[in-house]
Amino acid sequence: MADWVSDSDDGFEWDSDGDGEVAGSHDGAGTSAAASRSVDAPGPSTLAGPTSHSAEQLEHFVGMGFKRNTVLEAMKKNGDGDADSLLQLILTLQEIENDPSLDNGSASGCVPRPVDDSDDEGFLENWDDEAAGGSSYRGPNSDDSNDEDFLQEMSQKDQKVESLVNMGFPEDEAKMAITRCGPDASVDVLVDFIYASQTAVDGCTGSLSDLEDNSFEGRKKRRLMEGNRKKRKRFGDEAQGSRGTFDGSHDVPMPLPNPMVGFGLPNQRWRSVNRELPTQAIGRPFFYYENVALAPKGVWATISRFLYDIQPEFVDSKFFCAAARKRGYIHNLPIENRSPLLPLPPKKIRDAFPHTKKWWPPWDPREQLNCIQTCVASAKLLDRIRVALSNCGNPPPPTVQKYVLEECRKWNLVWVGRHQVAPLEPHEMECLLGFPMDHTRGICRTERYRSLGNSFQVDTVAYHLSVLRDMFPKGMNVLSLFSGIGGAEVALHRLGIRMKTVVSVEKSKVNRTVLKNWWDETQTGTLIEIDDVQILTAEKIEWYVRRIGGFDLVIGGSPCNNLTGSNRHHRDGLEGEHSALFYHYFRILDSVKSAMERM
């Protein structure tokens, strides 16, 4: 039977950073209207509205004569779609199962044909096989334990959504809260998260009133927020959205601003931001720490607590380039008089990659790409999409459009021919991320994707670092932790800031090779390379400080392996094996400050 999904699990939590919904999908799967039953043949007209509980949906469609496994498979793929879209998907899966001609790519069907897994050519070598692949349609003899777990989880989610809706919260916000906080979160925690999200504009980035209009919609939004403040008083909780010190005493996700513009964007009218640094964080050495914004609950509160309770600056790089990249930054840099790198990079796909415009179909509404990942789609998925489109008319039916758009968004695929999509090439990723062309050339393709996926977005970081240009006209000494392929160094170079000495700490030999090659071609200063933060002891730091006269900037971002939503099996927060290296960033920064005080 043909597989209707890509090479990832149905429940794959992709950290896409994308905000748009897939075309053709519908909201309202959790509304209270019940589906009406009909004894007639199943079709779109047999449903008066979506059901509110997954178990009821299952029994309803099984009662209509569909196979239980088929209904379950469709429910998993349909997600939050309504009952009509679920029925359409069930009928599609049933047609695939009943029509043998679809198994050999016959033109009689408009669905992707299965391709043998053996044709994968190493595109996912750096990806967890269990997390990224291996999901296929299960036959009637497969184990039903996963189905029972799925139904139980969906039932619990439905009950929590219904409870939150009954409290007066919008259904889409209730679902988002469950997605962010996890299915095991209590209703109290979900209420906290929804309120905190609604008040994040006031509580996380200072006043964003300049970004809101005074139209009817703007006034209505403010009334909604004020109403929810009153609603919170009824529940007896203290509002979590108002910014206090991040003491880590609660385990609630830090509210993220929307839009995610940090303390301001290039060419935007300057607005006042209430930001006070503690005395011990002011001045040299300046420090700059980066990691993923969408981290597990409590992570950013902990990071902030260790870094002098400084308020994070959350920024989405879609405001700087044609790809999203939601990141949090904690630093003690001035925030006035920033300036962007010139020329400004294109912010739309069609401007960044003009060759795609010829083939871009009108039913693909994407204008920006999602977050650059460390792996790309496999050849068999690309062939599956090609066959699906080739077997259909123009435009393809909504079901096929939805399938193709989901995969294009998930894997950042662009159009390169008629019915043909392809992943970004490494040099295209370099362009999006602000690196010079062929910056990573000379290492294997898989390593290029991995290194670029883990790097800084140079234009965003350079905008923040631009305040250092006038402060250090004769150059800087930099301690670069978790240097990767040199995103910080490239940003400083593009700003015209001379790097007198850089002590670079990077474990990956491949990344060190990339940085060293770039340094030798572009720099005249001294590059000192260390291969592990754990061997950079306080004694060595003191020696470097005395040898070069101290560090002007300590910059880096510890690994996000245990923080990102795409890591389903090891999303352990700062206690994870890799992300716990953050504590070495703090240890080293503290040692640098202590050593420089003794100079």
Radius of gyration: 26 Å
**β-strand amount:** 5-15%
Largest sheet: 7 strands, mixed
Low-confidence stretches: 1-52, 101-109, 111-143, 200-225, 227-250
Description of the structure:
The protein has 599 residues and is of the alpha/beta class. Helix content is 37%, strand content 8%. It is globular and about 80 Å long. The model is unreliable at 1-52, 101-109, 111-143, 200-225 and 227-250 (pLDDT under 50).
Secondary structure topology:
Layout: H1 54-63, H2 68-78, H3 83-98, H4 129-132, H5 145-166, H6 171-181, H7 187-198, H8 200-203, H9 216-234, E1 286-292, H10 299-306, E2 313-316, E3 326-331, H11 349-352, H12 379-390, H13 398-411, E4 413-417, E5 420-423, H14 426-433, H15 445-453, H16 458-465, E6 476-481, H17 487-494, E7 499-505, H18 509-522, E8 526-530, H19 538-548, E9 553-556, H20 582-597
Parallel strand pairs: 1-9, 6-7, 6-9, 7-8
Antiparallel strand pairs: 1-3, 2-3, 4-5
Helix pairs in contact: 1-2, 2-3, 5-6, 6-7, 7-9, 14-15, 16-17, 19-20
